Amino acid sequence: MRASTNELLVHVIYACAACGSFHAHAAPFEQVAALLNKSDTVPGLVHFGGEYLHCGLPMTLIGVAHRVIQAPPSPDGASETDLPDVEFDTKIAQCECGFRLELPT
Questions:
Q1: CB contact at 8 A, 52 and 44
Q2: Coil, strand or helix: which one is 36?
Q3: Distance CA 71, CA 36 (A)
Q4: Is-above-0.90 flag for pTM?
Q5: What per-residue confidence (pLDDT) applies to 30?
Q6: pLDDT value of position 8
Q7: Which residues of the chain have pLDDT under 50?
Q8: Are 62 and 55 in contact (CB under 8 A)?
Q9: Average pLDDT, the chain
């Protein structure tokens, strides 16, 4: 099967381990190959293009969060360290089942 841009498409079928539902759709061959070659994926989570799917459905962006990572206190208990805090924002995506994922903005 080929898309109008002459891109090779494959038929993808997958199931959610949590709810047992099955889904199928056409997807670009290169994206499927890249996904199958990744070893660090989260079980039940599929990423195609800019979409994250869980339970076979696109996750919904529900908000943003501001996160701060602080250096651990020094062994003598002093609160001052030479390391600066790291601050960053994340986008929060949620599945209908309640699964949440935070992504860097």
A1: no
A2: helix
A3: 36
A4: no
A5: 81
A6: 84
A7: none
A8: no
A9: 81
User: Which contacts of 19-24 are long-range, i.e. CB under 8 A and separated by 24 or more positions?
Assistant: 19/55, 19/97, 21/55, 21/56, 22/56, 23/53, 23/56, 23/57
- Residue 67 corresponds to which tokens in the numbers above? 């996160």
> Computed from CA positions of residues 12, 15, 23, 39, in that sequence, does the dihedral angle turn out positive or negative?
negative
Q: Which residues of 15-42 are buried (b: 16+ CB within 10 A; e: fewer)?
A: ebeeeeeeeeeebbeebbeeeeeeeeee
Nearest to 34 by CA among 24, 48, 23: 48
Structural contact between residues 12 and 31, judged by C-beta atoms closer than 8 angstroms: no
CA distance 105 to 102: 9
Residue 92: beta bridge partners?
Answer: 63, 102
